[in-house]
Every structure is written in C-alpha cells, then in structure tokens.
Design a protein that fits this description.
The complex is a heterodimer of chains A (296) and B (258).
Chain A (H helix, E strand, L loop, with lengths): L23 H16 L5 E2 L13 H10 L5 E6 L6 H14 L2 E2 L8 E5 L12 E5 L13 H9 L4 H14 L10 E3 L3 E3 L9 H4 L5 E6 L4 E5 L5 E3 L26 E5 L6 E5 L2 H17 L1
Parallel strand pairs in A: 2-3, 2-4, 4-5, 5-8
Antiparallel strand pairs in A: 1-9, 6-7, 6-10, 8-9, 11-12
Chain B lengths: L6 E10 L2 E11 L4 E6 L5 H8 L7 E8 L3 E4 L5 H10 L1 E4 L3 H4 L6 H11 L5 H14 L16 H13 L5 E5 L7 H17 L3 E6 L2 H7 L2 E6 L2 E7 H6 L4 H8 L5
Parallel strand pairs in B: 3-8, 3-9, 6-7, 7-8
Antiparallel strand pairs in B: 1-2, 1-4, 4-5, 9-10
The chains are: A alpha/beta (296), B alpha/beta (258).
Chain lengths: 296, 258
C-alpha cells in the first residue's frame, strides 16, 4: 500500500477529481474498515459505500477497495472471469490509469494489486501482493436466513449448522455437493465466509496464500479480508469430501491440463472447445512453447 | 426420580407496557411429567410458554432449569449463546403452525438432520440414517425423506416438526397447540403418537392448548389460566372432573357433548 497521495492540481489533465477518484476522507474510512477486516479474518465489516461511476454488479466494491489502497508506485492488473481483455477489466484498468497514474499490466507476477472478478490467477501469488475481489453477496447465510439481525447473531455465536444443511440438500438431491462456485469456506476455525463467485477450483488457492486478500461488496456495503497465510477450509462432509472439478480435455490453445477451462461453443452443430479461463496463463504458456520451438 | 425438579418457575410476570401478558406464575415440573396449560385465547398461555422456552424475556421472576452438566441454572441469567444451545439440544419447541418450526425450503431429511449438524455432525451417511430412524418413529413414510415439507399434509408436517425436535433426544419439549388446525381423526392419531413417545422417551412436556381433550389424554397436571393469571392448578383428572374455580367450571361445561 503506497498511501502517499498526490494533490489533484499537480496532475496534468485531470482536474476536478482527487487522486484515485475517491476523496481522502472516504479512503480513510475504507482503510479503517479494511484494517478491522484484516484483524478479524473472514468477518464482514460494514463501510459507507459510495456511488461509483459504474453500475452495481460491475465491481463497485472492488474498485473502492482498490482506490483506497492504491498509490503511484503500484502496478495494477484487473481480470474478469480470468480474462484481462474483457470490457469490465479494460475499463477498470483505464479508470485507474487515468485517475491514479498507475502502471497497468496483465502479468500476475509484476502486479502489486490484482483486482479480480470470479477467478484467482493460475500463477501462484507471492508475498507483498494484494488480491482484491469483487463481491456481489457477502453473506454466506443469506439464502438460508433472510434476516440480517439473525445472520449477524449466527456469526457471533458460530451457529453454522444450517450451512451444512444446504450441503446435505445437494447430496440428497444430486448425490454429491453440486455447488461449483462461491463455495463456502471456514476461516481460521472461526467465521464462515463466501469467497465471492470464484469456481470451487480456486478455493484451495485461498488457503495459506502469501498474498493479502481483500473482498469488497459495494451494494451490500461490506468488506472482509484474509491476511497472508490464513487457514481457509472448504466445508464438506466426512463421507463426501471437498474436491475440485477436473476435465478430460486440455486447453485447445496452449494444451494446459492443470488450469480452469472454459467451454466455448464454436458453431451450431455441436462443435465446442475448451480453453484456459486465465488468458495470461494461456499466453505465457504459448510464449514459452514458442521459445522452445525457436531454440529447438 | 430425582429430588430436583427439571423446571422450576417462580413469580413469573411478563408485561407488555401497562398490559399484562402473564402474572405471578409459579410451578414445578418434574422429570417425565407432562404439564398442560389451558385457557381461552388471550389468557397468556403463549406468553408464558415463550418466557419458559427462552423466546421472550420475562419482566420479573425466574425460570430455573436443571441442566445435564451444570445443575440448575436460571435460563435468563445464562448467556444468549448457552440459551440458544439449550433450545436446540436439550429442549424441543413445537409450534402450532408447522411452517414456523420447519425449514420449508429444504427436504424432510435435512429438516430432521439440522439439529445434528448444528451440534457438529459431519457424516452425511450417519445424519441420513438418524433422520430415517426418526421419520419411522413419527410414522412419516421414509420414501418421502427427500421431499419438501410443502408437499406434505398438515398432519405429516406436524409429525415432521416433532421428529426434527426429537433428533437430539431432548429432555423437555414445549408444545404450542400441537394439534391446532388438524382435523379430528388426524388429531387423535397424533395424540396417540405423542403419548407413546412421551412415555417411551420419558420426555417432560409443557403443552399449551385450548383443547381440553388434548390435556385429558396427555397431561398429568394442569394449569388453568385466565387474564394472565393461574386460577386453578392440580392433577388433570381432578381439575377436569371436579373444577373448583368458576372459570374452570365454565370451561369444562362448555365442551360440546358428542
């Protein structure tokens, strides 16, 4: 976090907005909430969410978190469903390049802050990096208990039996835990947390991760966090243990067998292909293969 | 039987502002005993039950419960966490309307298994076996374990609700009009079933009802309430056969003869 902010008038061509769009008081409020969130891993901290120049559901929570922690020396990467080149990812990158004069990148290794929607990069993260998640619904108990007063009490008293009721239902009706994304996790044996709609394939990456992970929900006005090296366990039953999805296919572009694959329909005759959801990972593998061929 | 009562209530009062919900109620409930609370609508029966079962804090008085491990405790002195734990392990609570006591959005099996999962059961096979056992015990067709409660008839829902409560083998069950809203033949079957379970599991029960037939069948002892106060108490047969208070006399004589 390079908190030194720039004075608005010092920056050429960007008058009228404070550094990184949000005013300094808002950023202080957010940082205070984030510090509390880091201190209590998995606990949802309320914050005064602001209107952002984008619709709810497009990452207003994530953008506010990023804006409050970003500084001029940061390098920003933004991904949407693993891709660096979708509208949402490109717009948010441009937004911060404009308002915060940061360098942007598509490289997970070079980035100091990675804002993400629905994926964790395939490339392993390292110390000092920050992963910012965009969260639609932060409350894991929401579909089971509609009252906010009651869900807060359930968190406070760790009354989490009902979470397993939803997993029981899955097994009773589908023969297995059918939940494939936003799979609930238990953080440090204390709070149950929604990891945002990442595929359950990414859940193991949350556990003992060297990077700081921050979660922002703009509409629901909550932030929560996983400090580096936090223990994160996906919920399951003894006789139906948690597992991640696997594919018989490999990526049609780079041939990867270990990454999360998207199925792409290619025509109306049943043609389809599987490709890496993480475009940077795919490109990196392609480049490496190109170099191998060049040297061979 | 032990020397210490399971539930001991002293001068329990609940006011709603200047209005009185129930006033100065005192009784003891011994292990294995079934206590009926009767009275007309608005007489404070449900207020009393809510105060006893940890749902509604009383204005005055104490409710002392004999826990398994810590002796007698005042349920309004212990922490909310302990009170809620008590309510989903050692106690059962059967609502008048099954949809209040059931999770209508999950299957019958999950409804019965919920309490087990709440106290840490994490083996799907064992939870399911236990759920099926209690469906059998309550005469719910085990083939319907994966169906949702809204596909069940009123009587089946009520039996499912009781199964859901008994799965942690509670010692004390509170029932609020358990047969209300059911037709008479279903009522009779449910009462038979409750009576059998109460004696088999040696449950203690507090049953609130306005139906004197229910307490005649189930309750050992009776409290008659009127305008928030207990006007008569005693053995069920004694109270019903030889009512002393004018209100009880009126209540008994207003049963329609068949």
């Amino acid at each position: 976090m390079n908190a030194e902010s720039l004075e608005g008038e010092d920056r050429p061509g960007h008058t009228g907005y404070n550094y990184a769009y949000l005013d300094e008081q808002t950023k202080r409020m957010l940082r205070r909430a984030l510090l509390k969130a880091v201190a209590i891993p998995g606990y949802q901290v309320p914050f005064a969410s602001r209107e952002m120049p984008m619709p709810y559901g497009w990452g207003t929570g994530g953008v506010q978190v990023t804006a409050s922690i970003i500084g001029p020396s940061d390098v920003l990467k933004v991904i949407d469903q693993g891709a660096d080149d979708t509208t949402n990812a490109v717009s948010i990158r441009k937004f911060f390049a404009n308002t915060a004069q940061v360098t942007t990148t598509t490289s997970s290794e070079r980035a100091t802050i990675i804002q993400t929607r629905h994926r964790v990069p395939e490339t392993a993260l390292s110390d000092g990096q920050i992963l910012v998640y965009q969260v639609p619904i932060p409350e894991p108990l929401r579909w089971l208990e509609a009252r906010e007063s009651e869900t807060r009490k359930m968190h406070a008293l760790r009354e989490y039996g009902v979470m397993h009721v939803s997993l029981y239902e899955d097994i009773a009706h589908h023969g297995r835990i059918a939940k494939s994304y936003d799979y609930p996790v238990l953080v440090e044996d204390a709070y149950i947390m929604r990891p945002s709609p990442i595929p359950k394939f990414d859940n193991p990456k949350l556990d003992n991760c060297p990077a700081l992970q921050l979660f922002g929900a703009g509409r629901e006005r909550r932030v929560y966090a996983l400090p580096p090296y936090t223990r994160v366990v996906s919920l399951d039953f003894e006789d139906h243990p948690f597992d991640v999805e696997t594919w018989e296919e490999s990526c049609a572009i780079c041939g990867a067998q270990d990454s999360f694959l998207d199925e792409v329909v290619t025509d109306d005759k049943g043609g389809r292909m599987h490709v890496c959801s993480d475009t940077e990972y795919c490109n990196k593998r392609l480049a490496a293969q190109g170099r191998q061929e060049a040297t061979a | 039987m032990t020397e210490i009562p399971l539930l001991e209530v002293e001068s329990l009062t609940r006011r709603y502002g200047r209005r009185i919900g129930c006033q100065d109620v005192a009784f003891t409930l011994w292990p294995g005993e079934v206590l009926g609370i009767v009275g007309e609508s608005g007489s404070g029966k449900t207020t009393l039950l809510n105060c006893l079962s940890g749902q509604l804090p009383p204005s005055e008085g104490r409710v002392s419960y004999l826990t398994r491990d810590r002796g007698a405790v005042d349920i309004w002195e212990i922490s909310e966490a302990q009170r809620r734990l008590l309510l989903r392990t050692d106690w059962g609570l059967v609502h008048q309307t099954p949809s209040e006591g059931l999770r209508m959005g999950v299957s019958a099996g999950a409804n019965v298994g919920e309490r087990l999962m709440a106290v840490g059961a994490r083996n799907y096979g064992e939870i399911r076996t236990e759920a099926l056992h209690w469906l059998d015990a309550l005469e719910v067709d085990r083939g319907r374990v994966d169906e949702f409660p809204d596909a069940f008839s009123g009587g089946m829902r009520q039996r499912l609700q009781i199964a859901r409560n008994l799965v942690t083998r509670p010692r004390l069950v509170f029932m609020d009009e358990p047969t209300g809203g059911l037709d008479v033949s279903v009522q009779a079957r449910l009462l038979d079933l409750i009576r059998r379970l109460v004696s088999e599991l040696s449950l203690s029960c507090v049953i609130v009802t306005h139906d004197l037939g229910v307490v005649r069948l189930l309750a050992h002892r009776l409290l008659v309430m009127r305008q928030g106060e207990v006007v008569e108490a005693g053995l069920t047969d004694q109270v019903l056969d030889d009512p002393q208070h004018p209100y009880t006399q009126m209540l008994v004589s207003s049963i329609l003869p068949v």
